[in-house]
Design brief:
Chain lengths: 113, 111
């Protein structure tokens, strides 16, 4: 019940295209859903995050869509750029607890020019 | 911009040896974490630390692991007797009100 399932495992997109990564969870107590971006040899860096009281959050080219009833959330990267090539992790936590992050398995995104 | 720092960037050790991984969290943060990432796999929670004590630990964080905040700035992870399967990237993180900020990691290689 603590798992976060992420798909796809890898994604290849052409420059200018839309990248979509999906995550699903079981534990309805989760109340914070961040997305992290990780470049090789670096630590994860927060990209964007959402709480379950909203269905969508947009920051620049990055949008999180959240479906509380389906227990799913997704990351959309509009106008994907080669510099977006990285591994993306969704995560979930329960903020009133220690808010340890439960990470998905990651999606390796490659954007080709 | 403040950031979490970790040292060393790479540690090579022999099986059975003790290692200490060091982290300097962001200065005004109160919550601290260690995570690990085995090569090519997801990031896994190890332990959280608040108010000078462990808040929560995972099944991975057994008696071989310990954490300490020896002074006002450092946060350390000690592995007493390393095993081959401890080889991984270890990330320290610290949190403000919402966000956990991760350090660049220490790559631990156990031979």
């Amino acid at each position: 019940q603590q798992q976060v399932k992420q798909s796809p495992q890898s994604l290849i997109v052409q420059k200018g295209g839309i990248s979509i990564i999906n995550c699903a969870y079981e534990n309805t107590a989760f109340d914070y859903f961040p997305w992290y971006q990780q470049f090789p040899g670096k630590g994860p860096a927060l990209l964007i995050a959402i709480r379950p009281d909203v269905s969508e959050k947009k920051e620049g080219r990055f949008t999180i869509s959240f479906n509380k009833s389906a227990k799913q959330f997704s990351l959309h990267i509009m106008d994907s750029q080669p510099g977006d090539s990285a591994t993306y992790f969704c995560a979930a936590s329960i903020r009133l607890n220690t808010d340890k992050l439960i990470f998905g398995t990651g999606t390796r995104l490659q954007v080709f020019p | 911009e403040p950031e979490v720092t970790q040292t060393p960037s790479h540690q090579v050790t022999q099986m059975g040896q003790e290692v200490i991984l060091r982290c300097v969290p962001i200065s005004n943060h109160l919550y601290f974490y260690w995570y690990r990432q085995i090569l090519g796999q997801k990031v896994e929670f190890l332990v959280s630390f608040y108010n000078n004590e462990i808040s929560e630990k995972s099944e991975i964080f057994d008696d071989q692991f310990s954490v300490e905040r020896p002074d006002g700035s450092n946060f350390t992870l000690k592995i007493r007797s390393t095993k081959l399967e401890d080889s991984a990237m270890y990330f320290c993180a610290s949190r403000d009100s919402d966000t956990q900020y991760f350090g660049p990691g220490t790559r631990l290689t156990v031979l």
